[in-house]
Amino acid sequence: MKRTAIKRRPLADTVLQTLEPEAKEYRESYGVDRLYLVVSTTGRKRWEVRYKKPATDRWAWMGIGGYPDTTAKRARQEAQRIAELVADGIDPVEFRRGAQVHPFKEVIEAWYQDKVDKGRAEKTLKGIRYWRDNDALPALGSKPIDKITRGDCAKLQAAIEERGAYNTAEKSRTWLNQIFGRAIAMGHTENNPASNLTDIAAHPPKEQRYPHLVEKDLPEFLRALADSPSKMIVRTAAWMVVRTASRPGMVRWAEWDEIEGDVWRVPGQKMKMRRDHVVPLPRQVLENLKALRPMTGRSRYLFPGEGAKSPVISDMAINTAFSRIGYRGRMTGHGSRHTAKTLLSEHGWPAQWTEAQLAHTPKGMEGIYNQAAYLENRRRMMQWYSDYLDALAGGTTDGDSSPVPGVSNETAAPTL
Domain Tyr recombinase spans what residues (predicted)? Predict the structure, then answer.
């Protein structure tokens, strides 16, 4: 039978049996599964499958047996198995040779699970998942780990930078190096193609510090916040951020069980540096929480959100509260930490106390960090700070920001 006489596909057994040779060897599509029957010039027939090599994304051929020894049914089954291997990022030819293939998506999942098992913060894991699903897997997921090139990694980085996500690009470099480092240790590959990505990284625009206020700007801001139209829950959270210089995310996720007397004990899993932290609560914050308890005391959280999908107020709630009183772009929740640090320093409070309050670990002290560092000193400092804010709002201070003489680690804190 001449192949020009073929009327339909998939090819029937009678067609397979009677196809005639030609002057040159040719392939005839079986009709499904990228399966082809090859007919040689001598009339011998064999099956081949066309597939894309995961490592290069180029088309290739793979022989799967002669005909009629390998029936059409068996050839289709083998073609489907090859398609499944390719979908998993495995080159079927290398698989046949017995080479152990580890697709990138398999390696990244193992790396991610290691992060989960080590107790990384949910916020960190969420960021990793977003990068994994939207950047890494679409670019590299189907490729065997040992076939990924420096060019592949460079393209991934460039794609992230092109959308202006320079912080994500920096994290991507870190995570890729961890993934390939782990793969090398596991014997899945011998090289790390992400090792020099920093050398070709784009320079991000100059980073803008969190907008914050200096002392002379505080009286008007504090009076406006006191008259804020925001709901009580958000307003109380905003005041807690301002008066304690705590990270907004910490405050949003604060739990009633963490409040013990006049201190707030934040467990390490909520902290950026994964260490327990103790925050002394000024009298004004305690009064606010006392007023808040009848409203949210039955909730796990001080500042619950609305609905099951929002256990706490949103990450924009506090900044929105500041925006509603006219301080959009001038003051943020995180900026209040800069404000506190600056004001306390200008009034002579020791850096060790302010750094401990901000949950910062000075260089050289990482190994001896104490969750209750300078607690009594910080208690007096933050009560002074909260009282001073009230004085600024009430106009009962001249706003002199000169340091108070005689203050050191050992001396008493300044009083209003």
Answer: 208-382
**Contacts of residue 370, Cβ cutoff 8 Å, sequence gap at least 6:** none
**Which fold, 215-394?**
hpI Integrase; Chain A (1.10.443)
- Among residues 337, 338, 378, 379, the one annotated as catalytic is 337
- Residue in the structure block whose two tokens are 């909260």: 386
pLDDT band, very low/low/confident/very high, at 361 (cuts 50, 70, 90):
low
CB atoms near residue 397 (< 10 Å): 16
**Residue 369 is among the residues annotated as catalytic for this protein:** yes
Whose CA is closest to 293, among 282, 277, 304?
304
Q: Is 360 a catalytic residue?
A: yes
Of the residues 74, 115, 275, 360, only one is catalytic, namely: 360
The answer to whether residue 293 scores a pLDDT higher than 80 is: yes
Q: What is the pLDDT of residue 390?
A: 96
Position 368 scores a pLDDT of: 41
Encoded tokens for 364: 């050289």
Q: What is the pLDDT of residue 413?
A: 40
Catalytic residue among 26, 112, 166, 369: 369
Report pLDDT for 274.
Answer: 64
Report, at the CATH architecture level, how domain 3-96 is classified: 2-Layer Sandwich (3.30)
**324 closest CA partner among 402, 184, 221, 186:** 221
- Range 104-200 classified under CATH 3.40.50.1580: no
* Res 302 pLDDT > 50: yes
Summarised one tens digit per residue, pLDDT across range 28-37 is 999 998 999 9
Q: In Å, what is the CA distance from 147 to each residue of 38, 275, 285?
A: 30, 39, 57
The whole-angstrom separation of Cα 65 and Cα 75 is 8
| Residue 407 pLDDT > 50 | no
Q: Tell me the CA distances in angstroms from 162 to 84, 131, 233, one per residue in order.
A: 33, 15, 39
Active site residue 155: no
pTM given for the model: 0.51
Residue reference for tokens 């040992």 = 146
